[in-house]
Amino acid sequence: MKITVIGTGYLGAVHAAGMAELGHDVLGVDADPAKIAALAAGRAPFYEPGLPELLERGVESGRLRFSTSLAEAAAFGDVHFVCVGTPQVPGSDRADLQFVDTVVTELSRHLERPSLIVGKSTVPVGTARRLTGLAAAAARPGLAPDMAWNPEFLREGFAVADTLSPDRLVFGVAGVDAEQTLREVYRLALDRGTPAFVTDLETAELVKVAANSFLATKISFINSMAEVCEAVGADVRLLADAIGQDARIGRRFLDAGVGFGGGCLGKDIRAFRARGVELGVGDALEFLAGVDATNDRRREKVVQLAREHLGGNLAGRRVTVLGASFKPDSDDVRDSPALYVARALWDHGALVTVHDPAALENARLAAPHLGYAADVEAALRAADLVVLLTEWRDYRELDPLLLAPLVSSRVVIDGRGALDADRWNAAGWTVHALGRPVAPAWDVTPIITSAVADVQSSQEEAVA
Ligand code: UDX
Question: Could you say which architecture CATH assigns to the domain 2-199?
Answer without folding.
Answer: 3-Layer(aba) Sandwich (3.40)
